[in-house]
């Protein structure tokens, strides 16, 4: 990590040193479920002196992972050496975008004909790469929809003035939904000021308030309710925003919806309350909030199942224990444990 060559040499001279040993990559490193070698770690940390030692003394092989990680490490010597043995791929471009090194991005585009992944520009907030993608592809539609995640109204205004419109959507989301997913309140306000309807719903009947609840966007929930959205509005399946918050364990959204008058016992078309949904999805914090705030724990859905039954059936023990702690009879509690103790 510190490219401490002196200490590393001493380490390599120990009798049990094995240059080929690999380490399981923790969350610190980007390659999930991947084991990293010493030389790959050098590439990631830009430790060029330790890298050279491993190459000269142990002939450590340069892998695809070495090249990919060198785009994150950013050391030109390591990168050039890796390029002698490995050909860049899309993962290299993704890491170049993540590094915010625009020279790496343009190098991969011009020399290796790799395309910029627009989703990675958004994920890593790389505005420069975003503009290069826009310039190269002229993909106004996808750029506009995803641009709302940057929370820069002037950027969206530019795209609107150059062919974009508020009805555009990408494969999954509208501009409103993208802004909400990234908790960009200023963009939601901008889209409304630009003519977007706050009452828009998607093909499933979900309102912007449903989206805000699923994204745990407390500020946006407050804004939408203040501007006229019904806190108990329902989608095509009868789900309210509170059901949506329960599904994704969004506690702040749940609290905000309840404060603004959400019916805690409202049922969807299948007869499920938000507690049923929380029990099914193991939404522990939200389930605890519901129980402590007086939700009807005895409410049954269309299949005559209460939330405790759902929790037991799904083996969600913590939620089950929380719910049945309010039951007066021990025999009732035992019946739920019997459900959970069945053979899986």
Which structural class matches the secondary elements?
mainly alpha
H/E element sequence: HEEHHHHHHHHHHHHHHHHHHHHH
Task: Give the total of beta strands.
Answer: 2
Shape designation: flat
User: What's the mean pLDDT score?
Assistant: 94
- The spatial strand order of the largest sheet comes to 1-2
Q: Spans of 5+ residues with little confidence (pLDDT < 50)?
A: none
**Count of helix runs:** 22
In CATH, what is the homologous superfamily of the domain at 198-344? Ankyrin repeat-containing domain
CATH fold category name of the domain at 198-344:
Serine Threonine Protein Phosphatase 5, Tetratricopeptide repeat
CATH class of the domain at 198-344: Mainly Alpha
DSSP strand content: under 5%
Protein name: DUF3447 domain-containing protein
Keywords: ANK repeat
Domain DUF3447: 58-133
InterPro entries: Ankyrin_rpt (IPR002110), Ankyrin_rpt-contain_sf (IPR036770), DUF3447 (IPR020683)
């Amino acid at each position: 990590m510190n490219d401490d060559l002196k200490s590393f040499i001493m380490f390599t001279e120990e009798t049990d040193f094995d240059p080929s040993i690999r380490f399981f990559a923790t969350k610190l490193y980007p390659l999930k479920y991947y084991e990293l070698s010493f030389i790959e770690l050098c590439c990631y940390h830009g430790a060029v002196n330790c890298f050279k030692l491993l190459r000269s003394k142990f002939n450590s092989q340069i892998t695809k992972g070495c090249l990919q990680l060198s785009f994150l490490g950013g050391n030109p010597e390591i990168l050039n050496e890796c390029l002698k043995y490995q050909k860049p791929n899309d993962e290299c471009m993704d890491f170049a975008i993540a590094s915010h090194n625009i020279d790496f991005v343009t190098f991969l585009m011009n020399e290796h004909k790799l395309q910029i992944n627009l989703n990675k520009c958004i994920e890593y907030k790389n505005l420069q790469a975003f503009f290069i993608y826009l310039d190269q592809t002229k993909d106004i539609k996808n750029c506009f929809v995803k641009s709302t995640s940057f929370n820069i109204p002037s950027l969206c205004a530019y795209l609107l003035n150059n062919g974009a419109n508020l009805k555009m959507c990408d494969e999954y989301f509208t501009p409103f939904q993208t802004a909400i997913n990234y908790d960009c309140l200023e963009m939601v306000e901008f889209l409304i000021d630009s003519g977007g309807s706050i009452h828009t719903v998607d093909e499933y009947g979900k309102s912007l308030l449903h989206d805000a609840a699923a994204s745990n966007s407390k500020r946006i929930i407050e804004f939408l309710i203040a501007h006229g959205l019904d806190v108990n509005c329902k989608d095509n399946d009868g789900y309210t925003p509170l059901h949506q918050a329960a599904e994704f364990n969004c506690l702040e959204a749940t609290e905000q919806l309840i404060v603004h008058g959400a019916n805690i016992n409202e049922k969807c078309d299948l007869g499920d309350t938000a507690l049923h949904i929380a029990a099914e999805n193991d939404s522990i914090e939200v389930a605890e909030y519901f129980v402590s705030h007086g939700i009807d724990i005895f409410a049954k859905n269309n299949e005559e199942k209460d939330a405790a039954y759902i929790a037991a059936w799904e083996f969600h023990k913590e939620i089950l224990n929380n719910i049945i702690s309010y039951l007066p009879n021990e025999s009732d509690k035992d019946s739920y444990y019997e459900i959970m103790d069945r053979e899986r």
